[in-house]
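thread from #wetlab-drylab

HS: before we spend reagent money on co-crystallization trials with flavin-adenine dinucleotide, can we at least see a predicted complex? here's what I'd submit
DV: go for it
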Amino acid sequence: MIYDIAIIGRGPAGISAALYAARGNRNCVIIAKDGGALEKAGAIENYYGLPTPLSGPELAEIGRRQALALRVEMIDAEVTGLDWAEHGFNLQCGADELQARCVIMASGAPLRRPKIDGLIELENRGVSYCAVCDGFFHRGKAVAVLGEGEYALHEAQVLLPIAEKVYLLGNGAEPPQLQHDKVERISEAVVQLLGEERLQAVRLADGREIELSGLFVASGVAGAADLARKAGAMLDADGRLVLDADGMTSEPGLFAAGDCCGGMRQVSLAVADGARAGMAALRYLREK
Ligand SMILES: Cc1cc2nc3c(=O)[nH]c(=O)nc-3n(C[C@H](O)[C@H](O)[C@H](O)COP(=O)(O)OP(=O)(O)OC[C@H]3O[C@@H](n4cnc5c(N)ncnc54)[C@H](O)[C@@H]3O)c2cc1C
């Protein structure tokens, strides 16, 4: 089955987009890993229609119930990959794959980079955030994936056929499980990246140094920019999504809404973004 609209995220932006998509009579699915930023928010009192404040989780639950009432399908999963396809897009959710004609990324604020000496200086000089995009530059060489979750596992699987050796660096946590003779799992913290012009090695907390051609940062969950890049959409020089007035990326049919677009992080703005992207996705499908 091919969904008309797949929405990544069930925060205010994703739910708002789904309300428009569903009322436009399109089959729509929301894929979300958790409740997003509202799960951490205490009292929300600056959003329209709340004479008495609601807690973040209460507001999130109301939104979720509203989407379910409009028969929006919801899947609890993490999206780890996004590819362009003839019909639109393929979304990887762990071992499963979903197909959709268009996608709205409403995945919340992007994760911060891990604080490791030398990381920022060596970005694009051996340090990458996308195995599909940059893995090929390291064919036949040793690479590492830095991260502990599903996304790190996905990036490692992309690199396995390309690289000679794949280190899984948990950076103080257990790295994901992956059985393969090319793989070495290391949980020791990474304290420094070494290299002048390009990345040459990582130094671990126990003093060990591991020579590397590439380091793929995949800690936490894939953000909208990571996913957009995999699907071929353009980012600006600072790695942010390039969007038109409707929230569409340079890849036709791929939209973004809410905190993942940058700017002020507020429920009201995320809801407005979601509505705009939902309506734009309907228009896109109609015109197609
Ligand atoms: C502590 C705190 C207090 C706040 N207080 C206020 C306030 O008082 N007023 C106000 O207006 N705003 C407040 N905010 C901000 C507000 O919560 C956010 O602006 C809003 O939730 C953004 O909505 P969103 O839909 O863009 O992202 P989010 O609500 O963060 O939702 C992101 C969704 O994407 C999902 N997701 C992300 N990556 C993936 C992936 N790879 N695969 C699957 N799912 C994924 C997440 O699981 C989640 O469902 C607060 C935020 C915090 C953290």
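DV: The CA atoms of residues 128 and 216 lie 5 Å apart.
HS: ok that's useful, forwarding to the group
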